[in-house]
Specification:
Order of helices and strands: HEEHHHH
Largest sheet: 2 strands, antiparallel
Distance between the termini: 36 Å
Helix content: 40-55%
Strand content: under 5%
Shape: elongated
Number of helices: 5
Strand order of the largest sheet: 1-2
Oligomer: single chain
Structural class: mainly alpha
Mean pLDDT: 78
Low-confidence stretches: none
């Protein structure tokens, strides 16, 4: 059963309803102008953040919780994401931008994860 909050959101913005067999909805950060907005499918964002934190932790010799703290402001964010918990769009974009800007040169950025442009700043 659909929650009241979800029904109101769909009533206000019916384009949020994904097509039954189509692609998942794409969200854009409201803090970045539309011309510069990166399209991120939010279903993969937690997976991408976890993977990037793990790769960077291995490359830098730091723990995953330390990289998580530096990227998101909380050392247990990656652990919570692994449990299936959520992350806000703004916090996810901030983490991806931090990871991209501070990426360890000893590791290659994964080819299947889009890298945010270095000029993009999230307020």
């Amino acid at each position: 059963m659909m929650s009241l909050r979800r029904r109101i959101a769909l009533w206000l913005a019916p384009e949020l309803e994904p097509a039954p067999e189509g692609p998942l909805p794409v969200f854009r950060s409201a803090r970045v102008p539309a011309a510069e907005a990166r399209e991120v499918q939010m279903d993969r964002t937690p997976e991408m953040i976890c993977l990037l934190c793990e790769i960077m932790a291995c490359a830098s010799g730091r723990s995953v919780s330390t990289i998580s703290r530096l990227a998101t402001g909380s050392g247990d964010t990656v652990a919570r994401l692994r449990e299936g918990r959520r992350i806000t769009t703004h916090r996810a974009n901030s983490a991806l931008c931090w990871l991209s800007t501070n990426w360890d040169r000893r590791a290659d950025w994964p080819a299947d994860i889009p890298r945010p442009p270095k000029s993009q700043e999230v307020a």
